Structures are given as C-alpha cells and as structure tokens.
Amino acid sequence: MASAAIDLLIGRIVSIIEQETSLIGDVRDDVQEIKRELESMKSFLEDAEAQISHNTTEVDKTWVASVRDLAYEVEDAVDEFIYHMNQQQGGGSFARFLHQTIYLPKNLYEKHRIATKLQKIIKIVEAIPERRQRYLVDRKEGRSYDEVSDKWVQNYAESSLFMKEEELVGIEDKRKMLMGWLMDEEPRHTVVSLVGMGGSGKTTLAANVYNNESVKRSFICQAWITVSQTYVIEELLRSLIKEFYQTSRDILPAELNAKSYRELVQIMLNYLELKRFLIVFDDVWDTNLWEEIKVSIPDNLLRSRIILTTRIEGIAFSSLGVERHIYHIEPLPPREAWKLFCMKAFSNYPDKRCPPEFESLALKVLEKCEGLPLAIVALGGIMSSKKSMLEWTQVCNNLNWQLSDNPMLDKFNRILLLSFNDLPYRLKHCFLYCSLFPEDYEIGSKRLIGLWMAEGFIQDVKGITPEEVAESYLMELISRSMLQVVYRNPSGRPNTCKMHDLMRELAVSISEKEKFCAVNDKREDMEQFGARRLSIVLTPDKEIKAWTTGMSQLRSLLVFFKDMVADPSSSNKLPSGFKLLRVLDLEDFPLIEKLPDELISNLFNLRYLNLRSTSIKELPKSISRLYNLQTLDIRNTEIETLPKGITKLKNLRHLLMYRSPKEGFHFRYIKGTRVPWKMSRLNKLQVLSCIISEGDVIKQVGSMTQLTRIGITDVKEEDGKDLCASLQKMKLLHYLFLMVTDEERTLGIDAISSPPPLLQTLILVGKLVRVPRWISCLDNLVHLYLRWSRLEEDVLPHIASLPCLGKLTLINAYVGEKLCFREGFSKLTCLDMSLPQLEAITIEEGVMPHLERLDLYKCINLKTVPNGIEGLSNLQWLDLLVMPIELIQSIRTGGVDRPMVQHIPNIHHFYRSPSGILSCESLSDPTTD
C-alpha cells in the first residue's frame, strides 16, 4: 500500500508541475527534487510491502510507515499551496489585479512558507534511508515469507484431501454436477473450472470428487497440484510427474531434479500418451498457467479431465482451445450454513444442536459469514469454546474486532489476504475505498467509478476514457471475487455491487493500518487517527462535527444515515474546514436544505459532489468556484434551475439532475432541470441527464458530440428537426432519454437517418405517429423503453431481429387488442408490459428462448395468460401487478391455466387492498418457491 500511495503521489506531483507552472513558480525546483527522491524510494517499497506483515524487520516496518506519512505530508503541502494560490487568483480580471497588487506581499510570504516546508521535507526524505541503515539488524538466513506462505497455503489446501464425508455440508448437488462433467462421454480432454472467493469451498469440493472411488477407478493416473502465486513451471512439471508415477505405482525417472523444461515436457507426453488421466490444479492465480502447461498435456481422446480451482473468473476463461465447463461456487443456503455452524460451534452438545438460549446470538454470528464455509468453520470453532451467555454476548458485540485481531482467525484472514496481495496496486486502492460504505450496502457501479476518478485512482490510458478504464477496474475486482454483483443491467454489466462482510472487515483493517481511510466505529478521537478518508453512519445521537473536528487532512467524506428524519432544528449542519476535500458524498441525507456558501467557496479541490435525494432547493452561486469538479449529482432534490456559474466548471464530466415524482406509473415520471445559456462550453461533459428543452438547448446539444448519455424533457413538436440533426452528430452516445411536455404531444424523431451507432439504451416518452424506422438499425441496443407511445402500428416486427436486445418495456405504448411474438428476440431476458387495450398475447414456439422475467401491469382487458408461455423454459419470474381477477384465478392451484405456468419457480400477484395498500401473494408451486 505504501508504494502504491507514493506512486499515485508522484503522478500527482508530475501533473501539478505540468499544469500549475504559473502557480508553483519559485517552489518548482523543490517539488521536482521531492519527486526524484520519492521515485528512488518506490522500488524498495514495492518489495518491502509484499513482506511487511511477517518476516520484515521492525526497522523496515517503521521505515515504510515513515515514507507513507511523508508522502501524505508532501501531498498536503502541495495541495495547500495550490489551494492558496488559486484562492488569490480567483474572481474576475479586476479582482485578480487587486490581488496581484494589494496581496503581493502575502503571495510572496506563502511561496516562502511552502518553500521552507518543502525544504524541510527534503531533509526528512534524505534522512530516512540513513536512519534505517543505522538501526538495521542483519537478517538471519532462512526461507523468505513468500516461500513460507506458499508452503502453508499448499499444506492447508491439501488437507482437504483428508476431510471425512461427515464433515462436509451442502456438497451433494455440487458433487453431482462435477461428477457428471468428469464421467461424461466427451472424448476430448476437458477443463472444469471451479470459481469462487477464498474460503467458498472450491478446494473441498474438488478434493471430495478427486477421492471418490468411482472416479479413481475411471482414471488410470491422477495428480493433485497446489499452484502457488509464484510457481516455477519446471517445479510444477516435476510435481505432476511424481504424482502420476506415484498413483500408478511406477518407478520415477532417474535424476528427475536435473531434467530441463524440454525433458520434463517429453516425459509427460510419453507417459500420458495412452492413459486416461485426471489432474487438479488447485488455487490458480495466473492466467498464463494454461498456456505454459498445455503443451505437456496431450489430448489423446481418452476422456481425460482437468479440474482447475481459482478465485479469478478470467482464469476460468483462459483455457482456450479445449472443451470447458465453468462452475461458480455460490454461498451455502441458510439451512446448510446453520447445520455447518452448529456442527462446529456445538460439537460437544447432544446431536450438535444449538441450545435455545444461544440461538439469537448464534444467528447473529452466522449472518456475518454470509454463507462462506471457511468463515463458518472458523467462527464456529471460536464459539465452541464459549460456554456462557456472557462470553457469547461479548464476542457478538465485538465481532468486527474478533475478525481482525483474534489469533484463532489468523488462518482465515490469511486466506482472504492472499486475494488482496495479488491485486495490482491501483486495484488495491479501489478495493479499500469500497470499505467506506456500510455493511451490506448496495453500491452503484457508476457512483463507485465517479468516486475512484475523483480520488485519482484511475490510470491515464491513451485513447480510452477514464470511465472506461475505471469500469475495467470494477470488472477485474468482480472477476477476482473481491466484490459481489447484486444486480446486472440487461447487457450483463454490473449495476450494483457489494462487499462480503468479511472482505469488508479485511479492507477496513488494512485501511486503518495504512491511514488510507476510516469508518466511524464508536471512537470519538478521529483526529489522532490521521485517516485521509472518512465515512460516517449518522444516527439521531450523533453529530457530524463530533466526528470531523480537526480533520483538515480529509480527502473524502461520505455521510450515511440510519433511522433519521428531517428536522430543521437539528444541530447536524455541515462542518467547514475541509479545504483539501476531493469527495463530498451526502446521498440520502435528510437534514440538509442548503449548502453554505462559505463551505462551497473553500472547496477548490473538490472533484465529486453527491447531493442525491437530499432536501436541497438550490445551489449557491459559489458553485462556479469548484474548478476541478468532475461529478455533480443532484438527482431527486428540490433544485429546479442550475445557476449560471455552472458553465465555468470546465472539468465537469457527469451532471446528473433528474427528479422522479412519487407517481411513477403516470405519464410524467421524470422531471428535468433548467440549465443556463452556453451549456455547450462544458466540452468535457460525458453525462447530461436530464435537462428541460427550452431556448436553444437542442441546438447546443448538437455541438456536445462528446456526450455518452443524455436526457431531455419537455421536448416540443417544433424541436423535431433540430433534435434529429443534433442526435445524428452524437456518435458516442450510449444512452438516450427523450420526453415530450405532456401525453397529448407527439415526439417527432422520424427524420433521423443515421442514429448513434453505439446506442445501448433508448427511452422514448410521448406519442409516436409510427415506429421510427431507424430503431431497427440499432445493433447495439440492449434496452428499449416506449412509454405513452400509443402506437397503432405493431412495434414487434421492427425490433424482433435486434441482436443485443435484452430488455423490452412497453408502457401504454400500443393500442392494439392483440400482440403476437412471431419470431426473434433471441437475447431478450426481461419483458415488461402495461397495455390497457390488450386482450390477448401469443408467443410462437422458439421465440424469446432466454426470457427469464415477465412483468404484466394493469393490462385490464387481459383475462388469460399469454398463449405459449409454457414454451418459455427459462422463465424464472412472472409478476402480475393489478391484473384482472379472471387471469389470477385461472393460474391458481387447480385453475384452468395452471399447467401452463407450473414450470415457473416464482409467480407473484400484486394487488391493492381496499385501503389502497399494495400487497403481494405468492402463486408459486410450494416445491419450487
């Protein structure tokens, strides 16, 4: 972490030198000298931090901590200086003239002060290596930490080979699936990849199948290899050969340890040429493994199999050129998780049952594990030694501390730490930053990307936007099982994600040690804690000021609330003094109606401002001074008009400001925001959603060809020509939302001849004379949403062949009485319809083969389920909202249409009670629900 911090810092100093030359002036040489010194340290730190937790000396640990703290001090000094000089140069030309004349002595004083401070830092930098050398004790010879750690991991993993059947829980279905792939008739050798986070049971499952007697009889020879993070291919080949010869009871080749890579490959090929073999590569970290090893594994068409376990999804896809199966290990379901916990925690009790008096506490502990078998076993082992209610309560009340500091959990923590240590340094920052969100918090992917960008975690890559690079970081963390996807959009991209509780505890523990960030945890003295980033979960008895006093070094402040309601008399006002803040995230915070002008005017360094779902009614004029702002999120606030100064924010990339009234199923379900003249000056803007179409807004949009997302409300019929002309220029557009002023207005967009080629989401709200013909050309379209279109023409023939369409939403979009899905929709997974005139739906055989979800809402004339619904074999969800009672009765148990829907696992009927409350009943088969 320390080398990562310095590497990012070096990048920032270089950027400052290049971009702020006029401000730095006399201190430029000092800044460059610090840059050179820090670069010379970086190479040592990259080695030191990899070993910092174990075999590194205390002198080294102190040295690394000193360099980290120094890096932070340099960052503060440079940021404070840039902040001060920009404060002096703020305002108009006359104001700048006054500052240059009246305040020139003060400017010189500030330059002298910062130069003195930087010179002092340089001396400290030079002294740190000398101090380290002076107190360094010669290290004893022996194995490195990497060697010891690799051996420990190998021994721990291979202990799974000796687990007894009665110790295993929840393995039956997984074993059946894996056995089927191993024993099928496919002649080519096949790679079966088991993917999951550390401790999810991948190795245990593989070992159970590997030891199965029927499996042993089916393969002539077998080999189990635990692949370390730093494997050597020659050593791996030698281990394979030894394992094969041992299981076949053959005599090993002479002088095996002296064989070269080429000789080892030849031995493997000769030995396996006529044998059916099984290989397990356990705990694979490197995507290059298969490329390196496959040359030695012959495809002899004898139904040989390879099992590969990994935490990294990308590795499962790296075995190119062979048959493959990929199985994602899911958490244990609640019943099996409880059974496993009781086996460990109550092993000395009759039938290993939980005593009634411990049940609520046991469930609290188990909840923390989130179905992760290794965690259940580890925590269950700790609790097995606790005999009294007092001991159990103490552990439960300090569960976070137990997870980070209890020696009995060291093995478990080391397993998780392997995943963190394997991350590239930029991903380490991104991962740790996620721990600022509360437990089980569902984090929006775009929100996370904006936060990472604001903090400077995203590498500059020529030809690729920062958003695209950040998204690749997110996908990598998900692929490595470091983040869990909660919801994906129709294209399969993560929409929201979360951290496993135990992964979060790991991140919090590391962050605190590195002063990277802190989460409020009942400690009042946060000032001495020295964290650069802070998240606060406010409750009625907490105040923001109590947690932030004296923390001028903060770069990120995220505030969450729990059990709070808006109260004008509340003392929870925003504190000031955070002049170096880059991130201020107040989403859903109910106690703020106004941003203090003096607060905003001091936040020159701010990159990210999130006020979503707060009670704020207007932005202060001083918003124009946030020159570095990249993201401004004011969605679902009371702000109706943006101040004129918003056009001065030249670095703004994301401007999010639509409002969603409560009446979500009415025509006007989105309201836009008025924007000032000359919005087109914001030439870095990527996202603009949603603005009100008035004045020359439509023409301005035509010059903002860099936009990737745009939403426009109150589009008028007379805007049609200009709108079509503007949209044709926007070749980078991925998302388009258009809405007319009221439900009687027509949306005139037929004149588009070449629509945005990259468009993935298209939302049209308003009357359409006919289906726009250009829609059928949108080869990248994933989601089509037509609302209040009231088309007389059938839309389905125009969109059935769209190759990427995954979600279709039709809300009062068609006035016909019958709708027939005759062909196509090969990628559609979700279909939502609310068509009041509709009387019948027909689905022909083979259409929508991948449909997983069907939602029908207020189709008041639809008395029967869609004809052909029984052919939708992948349908998992059928939701019926305020539908005719005749339809509901027909699919209840014993109803005439019940056989047509019996294959659907989840069927829900939503209805309004006489009091108007929306209620839900399940119509699913009890055996599948």
Automatic annotation (TrEMBL):
Pfam families reported in the protein's UniProt record: LRR_14, NB-ARC, Rx_N, WHD_DRP
SUPFAM superfamilies according to UniProt: L domain-like, P-loop containing nucleoside triphosphate hydrolases
Domain Disease resistance R13L4/SHOC-2-like LRR: 553-878
InterPro entries from the UniProt entry: Apaf_helical (IPR042197), Disease_R_plants (IPR044974), LRR_dom_sf (IPR032675), LRR_R13L4/SHOC2-like (IPR055414), NB-ARC (IPR002182), P-loop_NTPase (IPR027417), RX-like_CC (IPR038005), Rx_N (IPR041118)
Record has Cell membrane as a keyword: no
GO biological process, one term: defense response to other organism
Gene3D superfamilies: 1.20.5.4130, Helical domain of apoptotic protease-activating factors, P-loop containing nucleotide triphosphate hydrolases, Ribonuclease Inhibitor, Winged helix-like DNA-binding domain superfamily/Winged helix DNA-binding domain
Transmembrane segments: none
Limits of the Disease resistance protein winged helix domain: 436-507
Disease resistance N-terminal domain ranges (all copies): 6-94
Protein name: Disease resistance protein RPM1-like
UniProt source species: Rhamnella rubrinervis
